[in-house]
Design goal:
The complex is a heterodimer.
Chain A (H helix, E strand, L loop, with lengths): L5 H22 L5 H9 L3 E3 L4 E6 L4 E3 H14 L3 E4 L4 E4 L7 H9 L17 E2 L14 H11 L14 E4 L13 E7 L5 E7 L11 E8 L3 H15 L10 H8 L1 H15 L8 H9 L14 H9 L1 H10 E2 L6 E6 L10 E3 H14 L3 E4 L5 E7 L3 H10 L14 E2 L14 H10 L3 H7 L4 E4 L13 E8 L2 E8 L11 E2 L4 E2 L3 H15 L6 H8 L2 H18 L1
Parallel strand pairs in A: 6-7, 7-8, 16-17, 17-18
Antiparallel strand pairs in A: 1-2, 2-5, 3-14, 4-5, 4-13, 8-9, 9-10, 11-12, 12-15, 14-15, 18-19, 19-20, 19-21
Helix pairs in contact in A: 1-2, 1-4, 3-12, 5-9, 6-8, 7-8, 10-11, 14-16, 16-18
Chain B lengths: L6 E4 L2 E4 L16 E2 L2 E2 L12 H5 L8 E4 H16 L3 E6 L4 H6 L9 E6 L6 H11 L6 E6 L6 H6 L4 E2 L7 H5 L19 H4 L4
Parallel strand pairs in B: 5-6, 6-7, 7-8, 8-9
Antiparallel strand pairs in B: 1-2, 1-9, 3-4
Classes of the chains: A alpha+beta, B alpha/beta.
Amino acid sequence: MYRYDSYDQRLVDERVDQFRDQTRRYLAGELSEDEFRPLRLQNGLYIQRHAPMLRVAIPYGHLSSKQMRMLAHIARTYDRGYGHFSTRQNIQYNWPTVESVPDILADLATVEMHAIQTSGNCIRNITTDQFAGVAPDEVIDPRPLAEILRQWSTFHPEFALLPRKFKIAVSGTIQDRAVVQMHDIGLEFFRDDAGRIAARVWAGGGLGRTPILGSMIREHLEWQHLLTYCEAILRVYNRHGRRDNAYKARIKILLKALGKDEFSRQVEAEWVHLRDNPNTITQAEFDRVAAFFAPPAYRDQPAHDAGFHAALASEPGFAAWVRRCVQPHRQPGYRAVTLSLKPTGIAPGDATDAQMDAVADLADRFAFGEIRVSHEQNLILADVELGQLHALWQAAREQGLATPNVGLLTDIICCPGGDFCSLANAKSIPIAQAIQQTFDDLDYLHDIGDLELNISGCMNACGHHHVGHIGILGVDKDGSEWYQITIGGKQGSDASLGTVIGPSFAADEVPGVITRLIEVYVRDRHADERFIDTVRRLGVAPFKAHVYDKRADQEAASV
Amino acid sequence: MSESPSRVIVDGAIVPNQWPLMPLPALDEAVRKQAGKVVLFRLTGEHPYEPAQLAALQVPAGHVLVPLAVWLAQKDALAARAADGEIGVCIDTHELVEDLVASCADINVFPVIAVRFERFADGRGYSIATLLRTRYGYRGQLRAVGDVLRDQLFLMKRCGFNAFAVRADRDIEVALAGLRDFSEPYQGAVDDPQPVWRRHARN
């Protein structure tokens, strides 16, 4: 993975000094709330319901074991012994004090980490596929360009105060796992006819109040021009994006207002002036960064392992875990392993300091000391030998990190919701927990199969509810918490936004509604058809009928 | 609050302010709301003043920063003073830099161009400055005025500003340190177009 040189290190060290001074001036009353707000947000610091929340960047989801131990240390020292891995490959701490944040940042800087631009109206953490570099369907490893983008976007002076937040995702696979179409800019790398690295450029995607999938504004951009082309997009947005209404300030609204063709024309006209300027990436810089992402020292391994296959046959628990939590790998004899942060009864994405330390130990023992964080809020050990999977499973199980539910209904993506977030209309974690408890029977869960259930506590959509096969959105009705259900959303190359099934539900009705949706699927599915496929084939109507008929039955019974 | 403090930062030094900003009459505007929130920023390209109103304003004698809208309304009458180097122009963040450029044969006729930040959080001024320096070849003094605060000075400097009228209620000596927040930025920008990997051999 990428390691800082003296220039990277000096920048984060100077950032710590800068923020320490800003915090001091704020606490001394020299900076007003309004003046401090953008400064603290650009360091990931929110003022929340109970206490401040600090969001720390995990660039494109990569962590070393040493960094993971520091995250554990911070949870233990400055927080209440846990952290929350978010849907944008960040970690959030819910209970630090404002006064302690400069010290936290100083601790992070010692392990080449920071909280720069994890919030605020600026370019946020660059995200990508959690299996980058190891996925069999990968065409281009997106990480070197993600790191180059990270550096370019860090304190970019022209784009430090945009109309609204700005999210960039990159991917280099056949099957998109970085949800590039729901980002302000999505860059999908491929190898062109001449064998060069190029990108399809998507712009104007985003969830939130007005969910829109991105538009492809350029079909072919050679990698050298990545930064200057992004500058052209951002300049058009910075100048003309709306600032009079925060709900209409994302680039997607500008793109929609201008139309894709006119927006693209303006970007291209701007790029004429920027193309080939010194921010054009050189081969030397690409090679320098790419060298950090060279494959680890894999051992020559047979494609099969007798012990592994024997354990699969004799231990159903291990077999279930392998089926859900072990993913294919491009290197023969290796696998990628997902450690589920979604056991029943725990807020999705939460990990304790002890678990973080344990994951760091597992990474050192089994996976070259490296860890990935996924936007599905799980942790990944990307390079594990086939013959070590059983030992890893046993060790992970002791830490509660081997729930065999990855990709299943209980692998819920969930924002912190009304328990923590001051923006939320409704709680989301208790809803996730109630659903997990309802579907606690593993055999039934495995029978239901692949199903993505996403929960957001408000229309800001941190829980990506629009692209969940089942999406749950917390809404406020006259001061009480209600939940609107969508079905048919999907992330990936064939992304779609979900359809609302009808009037919203009270919290205690939600698990029953999910049960009814699953009943329709189990009743009507074709062989080997996933939930999302059944919804796409049948439409919303049969699901809606079953859910609301049931409600009518209950109301009739209670009269 | 006056937007013409007595001292300003020019090229890293604190000097007397020789370019006062001509004030515009207060706008008699109703509070505008969108989605229940007060509108803080004008849309790019908005024109809040009537042309006749702008044409009737008296431009003070001596060195003066004239709001772009006034310059556009009175540029013929001001041409001689401009040729004598007495006139600078002040562009608001919601105004179009293209209008300024189109208004004269050579923008370097202005010894000073100011960009006025009604609110410091309005990043449009950074693109205006960048365009003036890179696309339109402006070589004179580029000054940030209005809600100009210590914590944005480094960004402003990188976008091509070399003068700063720090808000009058803030200590300009303290603000000066803001120009030195970072020593080796990553990306090329106006002040140094070379990104760090072209400035130095990295390993």
